[in-house]
């Protein structure tokens, strides 16, 4: 068993014991008829135990989806969550929160990371292309091919991400998303795709407005991807 | 550094709990101190 999990649960256990000791001492004091030092001290213990338990429980104790605003109808189609022994409590809760099994969550995160990696690659390529264009250096065929290849890969990954969203929508899991960041990123990608394609066509043209626009969109997308991945880190296969 | 400080404070509270028990032979206050100290000792 992982040491971290033992620590997590010992904290919960100590909080519960502190709370119960506080309650017991308070009861004894009340039965004896005088509050006294022990009675006051027991209140301190109850407050300490209560606060620490409150802080711990939301991270460690699984709250049934029924209490999280989901109806039985909504949870019906969802796959059963399977957890391996190695899955940490945090991972379990986070995966449950989003309705993903840890395996699904891991694969989604990997896809997001791959998408972001290629976005950054594309950003660098566009940067290079602009620099060259400004220096009136011709962009050779090989570079153009590289550019197209990355773009192609992005399109494919974009399709995969869209599949995840569509699948989620079918199962009804998307209901739980507070903010459809992924949707917005994908929408932005659509416009980026068009701009990149236009830019690719006008690679040798004198103005680089297309690239500038593409760069700003890529930057926004990288920011959004960072936010998603940060959120995922917090709340998915964390955060 | 923050974690070490919390652990040291936890250890001190546990020790003080034991000392109080030895001196007073009264269980409630030391038990509370030991529990609070232990909580800080296992804090992540």
Report on this model:
The complex is a heterodimer of chains A (239) and B (44). Chain A is mainly alpha-helical and 239 residues long. Chain A folds into 2 domains: 3-61; 98-235, Four Helix Bundle (Hemerythrin (Met), subunit A). Chain A is 76% helix and 0% strand. Chain A is built from 8 helices and no strands. In chain A, helix 1 (3-32) runs antiparallel to helix 2 and helix 7 (181-201) packs antiparallel against helix 8 (209-235). Residues 60-72, 172-179, 203-207 and 235-239 of chain A have low confidence and may be disordered. By secondary structure, chain B is mainly alpha-helical. Chain B has one domain (2-36). In chain B, 84% of the residues lie in helices and 0% in strands. Chain B is built from 2 helices and no strands. In chain B, helix 1 packs antiparallel against helix 2. The interface between A and B is medium-sized, with 21 and 11 residues.
Question: Mind sketching the topology for me?
Answer:
The complex is a heterodimer of chains A (239) and B (44).
Chain A: H1 3-32, H2 36-60, H3 72-76, H4 89-98, H5 102-134, H6 141-171, H7 181-201, H8 209-235
Chain B: H1 2-24, H2 28-41
Helix pairs in contact in B: 1-2
Summarize the structure.
The complex is a heterodimer of chains A (239) and B (44). With 239 residues, chain A is an all-alpha fold.
Q: Provide the CATH architecture of the largest domain in chain A.
A: Up-down Bundle
Strand fraction of chain A equals: under 5%
Strand count, sense and closure of the main sheet of chain A? none
Shape of chain A: rod-shaped
The run of helices and strands of chain B is HH
Give the termini separation of chain B: 12 Å
**Oligomerization state of this entry?**
heterodimer
The computed structural class of chain A is mainly alpha
Number of strands of chain B: 0
Average pLDDT of chain A works out at 64
| Radius of gyration of chain A using CA atoms only | 27 Å
CATH C-level name of the largest domain in chain A: Mainly Alpha
- Counted up, domains of chain A total 2
